[in-house]
From TrEMBL:
Natural source organism: Kaustia mangrovi
Protein name as annotated: Large ribosomal subunit protein uL22
Keywords: Ribonucleoprotein, Ribosomal protein, RNA-binding, rRNA-binding
Job of this protein: This protein binds specifically to 23S rRNA; its binding is stimulated by other ribosomal proteins, e.g., L4, L17, and L20. It is important during the early stages of 50S assembly. It makes multiple contacts with different domains of the 23S rRNA in the assembled 50S subunit and ribosome.
Gene it is expressed from: rplV
Keyword RNA-binding recorded: yes
Top-rank taxon: Bacteria
Subunit structure: Part of the 50S ribosomal subunit.
Length: 126
């Protein structure tokens, strides 16, 4: 018998990779995600390799995972892949406290993010 498999939420020419618990604020991660949105995969990987942002290495790993999913799981052509979506979500926030003057306390929030990258295969226009 077995459990019925869930319907695929993406199109047949798309693949997705997701990374959770990235130790960076969503605002900072979105700057790097916006840098690769809509670009061809090889160009996006080159941009991430030479980016000076600390989190760019993690974004690059997620993009490489999406490319590997497209190639191995969905049999898509790697050379024709484009980053169709790259979006950021909030995750948990660690709350920490610092002592301040006159017995007060300062709240420090250490946010985590999650990143989802969707790559799409596009046919070359002749």
């Amino acid at each position: 018998m077995g459990k019925r498999s869930r319907e695929r939420t993406l199109a047949d020419n798309e693949a997705r990779a997701m990374t959770r618990m990235l130790r960076v604020s969503p605002q900072k991660l979105n700057v790097v995600a916006a840098m690769i949105r809509g670009k061809k995969v090889e160009r996006a990987l080159a941009d991430l390799a030479f980016s000076r942002k600390r989190i760019a290495a993690e974004v690059k790993k997620t993009l490489q995972s999406a490319v590997a999913n497209a190639e191995n799981n969905h049999s898509l052509d790697v050379d024709a892949l484009v980053v169709s979506e790259a979006f950021v979500g909030k995750n948990l926030v660690l709350k920490r406290w610092r002592p301040r003057a006159r017995g007060r306390v300062g709240r420090i929030e250490k946010p985590f993010s999650q990143l989802t990258i969707v790559v799409r295969e596009v046919e070359e226009a002749a």
